[in-house]
Amino acid sequence: MRLNLRQGHRVRVIPMTYEKRFDGRAFDEMRPIEAKAGIIKRAHGSGWFKIGNTEAYAAVYGPREMFPRFMQNPKKGVLRVHYNMMPFSSAGDRVRPGPSRRSKEISHVTQKALLPVVDLGEFSNAVVDVFIELPQTDAGTRCAGICAASIALADAGIPMKDMVCAISAGRVDDKMLVDLNYEEDSHENGVDIPIAMLHNSKKISLIQMDGELSSDDLKKAVEMVKKACDEIFEVQKQALKKKFEIGN
Amino acid sequence: MGEIQVKDKEVVVPGETLATGMDFLPSYGTYREGDKILASRLGLVTIEGKVIKLVPLSGVYHPKRGDTIIGHVTEILLSGWRIDTNSAYSAVLNMKDATSEFIARGADLTKYFEIGDCMMVKIINVTSQNLVDLTMKGPGLRKLRGGRILSVNANKVPRIIGKQGSMVSMIKQYTNCRILVGQNGIVWIQGEDPAQELLAVQTIKKIEREAHIPGLTDNIKGFLEKNRGPNAPQPQARPQSEGDTNDL
Chain A residues with CB inside 8 Å of B212's CB? Predict the structure, then answer.
């Protein structure tokens, strides 16, 4: 509301509250989700997860021999995650290829988000590689990446006690909402909270926050994510089952 | 009272509830959480009385003592050969387990096996650190000359072999190929006619794809009948030659 009041006009200030979402969704409604399993034939497991305009591919290789050797862990297997946004993926401003500060951080938090469910106890000295590629992005990439990686890990037959579902929640002005798109994510008065949750226990394996939020609102955000995660799990489950359907 | 939540022979995903109540026992691929039994990997549910277990559908081969596998030489060591096992762990074939011939100190080991040579070997030991020892002393264990190598999902090997080797001997009959199947998912095929070899490859690929679909044997038989060339020899029970058995 940058208004020039020095000109002496009497200006009626229209309250610009966020009454309705830019794309017409309900506040607790996610963008349409699609998922598939086993789309990358030469990988041991793979997953594809699309939420609105955000699209993530994940491929899992391994357990396989780990190089460099000094990174091996003789007690249990290592999970190595590589997150990458493709150069053309965002809204026209080219993402420089290769590892950046941001992608390194997201690779790291994604690994931490997936680690509580995978059991690599019997894969000493070996590595499970997870590659996440984003050909098209519209906010919520780390969450889409985690959902895709979860499908891919299950498809690769890695022992997992649960699936990981991830979605962002947040605030725009005074409204709490789930699954922010880029417009909402970059709103000047807003908060974005990506959350990853284990499906059964509803334990949180990733939570990050960009902005400021009251503790009540944070609780509200977590509740919204809980509800959304059940829907995401259903999509992930169907994607994996469909791969093994007769005639597929 | 306890209740099963899934159908027998259904594909389930990690974290899916298989049964509630204390009436059932969790076996391989499942775990108990409170009064529920959940899946801990992707697999096919098998209910045997009170025991619920999963048959894995995917996953990389993990070396197991007593398995007969097909590997290839990757390195010449001081007293043996390093063998790739199509898993996260390479294996060592010590020269005393490789041949009963006398090998003089400092002899050139490439006279026996060169890098790249394929061989049928048996795993004699897997240590807690996943160091694998192999032997070539045993029926059917030998170096493989000629033929072609095919790699399949190691979890589908029991289906390719069939009950008492019924499936593999059916393919042998129809294609007149010599076929060896390693537990690690490496298949060796040698036939007189490339077209016949190709049919064997296609058949094995088909089994790999359709292993979890009921009526596999009839489907494969139909496929072999249909694709057998007009001039191909009639299926005949070939006398089993030495080293041609697959009594795994």
Answer: 244
